[in-house]
Amino acid sequence: MHKKQCVAMLLAGGQGSRLGVLTQKIAKPAVPFGGKYRIIDFPLSNCYNSGIDTVGVLTQYKPLALHAYIGIGSPWDLDRIHGGVYVLPPFVKEQGGKWYKGTADAICQNINFIDRYNPEYVLVLSGDHIYKMDYSLMLAFHQDRQADVTIGVIEVPWDEASRFGIMNTDEDCHVTEFDEKPKQPKNNQASMGIYIFSWPLLRKYLLADEQDDSSSHDFGHDIIPKMLGNKHKLLAYPFEGYWKDVGTVESLWQANMDLLNEKSELDMYDSSWPIFSANPPRPPHYTAATAKVSSSMIGEGCLVYGEVKNSVIFPDVYIGKGASINNSVIMTGVRIEENVVIDKAIIGRKAVIKQGATVSAVQQQEGHKIVVVAADMIISPHSKIGTSVSCPTDEEFCGKEEAQL
Amino acid sequence: MMGDLMGIINLSETEEILGELSRSRPLAAVPFAGRYRLIDFTLSNMVNSGITNVGICIQHKYRSLMDHLRSGKEWDLARKREGLFILPPAYTNNPMQIQRGDVENFYSNLDFICKSRQKYIVIAGSDMVSNLDYREALNFHKKTGADITILYTKANCSTHDCMRANVLKMGEQGQVIDMKEYNDSKDDQNISMKTFIMERILLIELVNDCIARGDYDFIKHCIIKNVNTLKVYGYHHPGYVARISSIQSYFEHSMELLSPQIWKELFFKSGLIYTKVKDEPPARYMAQADVSNSLIATGCYLEGRVENSILFRGVKVHKGAYIKNSIIMQNCKIGPNAVLENVICDKDVSITADKQLKGECNYPLIIKKGQVI
Question: Complex ipTM, two decimals?
């Protein structure tokens, strides 16, 4: 087998329960984003752009759509003879099967895969974040400084720091202390969930951790603190640029809106760092004479007769005359009929909003909340939707059940 | 029976008709409809008709075409068995020989046709843009027991450009009585779509026969000469057909795509149209964008005004620019306050600030690929 310098392991098994109905049928990394993409396109494209050609994708929760999407990895140029993308779900062994109990356990159960390539380094990524990052620079940092572990960190606003794993470092980027979700954070350098490990060391720790019944088999909880305790060289690699955890409906919506910000740090139009995705074979979209579109992104195959402002529209969406869409994310194949009003909403795949209906958040005390209409729902004419709707909770709007790919 | 049809795309077409647009590319590689090249329609129709064995007879200037087709993967034609075959022109076999016609191209690639396993073959060009399923015509061909079936469309030659078209005279049972080049009649005509269905064995016979007699023009010598000796039928394709025969018809048919009805038919009716993908993000409308009655492809970045126009992938329209009745191809940049009307910008054109360019609606101004104005 060809030796690889660095193998990436992408953790994509999470349910993403805080995304509610958006992950009812699909795993979080498969959640659509930005008018064309799925969340997993970002780490996979970053791998391509960083010259990493061997990626194991660890899947577990409702993996059908994710597996179908990744396929043999062609969109990211990862259909390769040596290396490429491997989908790695949990499997049965002689002593029976085990689910992935934690992030470290998922990697541990796939030691055989990594050993095939006998890499010097393993890059651990997660499928939950929207960002563009050159992993090769981080790897160079790891090599130059002869680190055992390098952890990607980013400055977060102080008032949010207690939601993250906080890295306390000395002036030389050495990690001195790791605080998981501290109540009183000592600084605002949050772990991005991106690690580079020297493989022989990680391999040893994974095998030891597997035997430890008290461990939760998680990188942040168990492996990193143990390595820190044993005085290994842990470095924090500061990343500057756009990075967003899209773990909640609000943050997913916000990240979509960030794309529409003219000063956004996340430039999707920069051809030197393309984000790849599956390309639907659809014609250019049509914007009619009655349409009025501004500050928005519109995908291929759409027919737009209505008004669209500050919104992200995925491919194959129909927007009828007199409809008005503001501050919303409309996913693939949605049909929005005449005179519909939508504001601050996420409309799931292939939903139908019948004429004259209103989908808009009821004003809450702490500000706006985002209304989610789940995939395949059919909203009846002239109805008013103020809170999220999904099947089977809101039976009157349930459309046809379809396998979502 | 499944899989009993194979395809040949015959690209020995006169490309001069598109002037500047076909200066550095064959007609088949001329960009069309905001993201495609003309060949995509014929090729996708074949794939959507269940054809998995396609030979493309190339002729001239084919670099851009090869770049577009590559392995045929985008059309699902990168296959273990069969798939996409590029058939080189005859003169590459015999460089000293004068090149006379497309039958020679067939003849020099006869091995490919002989060793294919399908019973029937469809031969088509790339200048008839439509969305159709050849299997319907094949069923007609089998039912009538014809030797050759010619697909045709009806056009009114007083409003449509019929120059250089082959017109068919039809008998009552649907047989073709006569076929000839169009000459100046203003009525409704049956226009050949240059698409023929026959048994593969018959094509081999016709080609061998032509070569043996020193003939070389496929339509004139293999088809027209045989209209009265073989059983030749016409199959009327009732759907939309854009016949690209001149700059004017290219412009006119492009603008017809701004009708959602035609847009739907051409891109969705019998199947999807595939093309080489570019991984562009969705089109971006900025706060000042003002777009109406236009087709906008992915990767466009719009700050200006666009009206009755077609924008290909990755076009940038700056503030204050105004594009009207125009076709702007891939990666063009239209500078601030530039005004364009009835203009076709080929790929990679850059119009700097404040320029005003204007053609006529029946004579669009064409800006050469890569020009900076």
Answer: 0.92
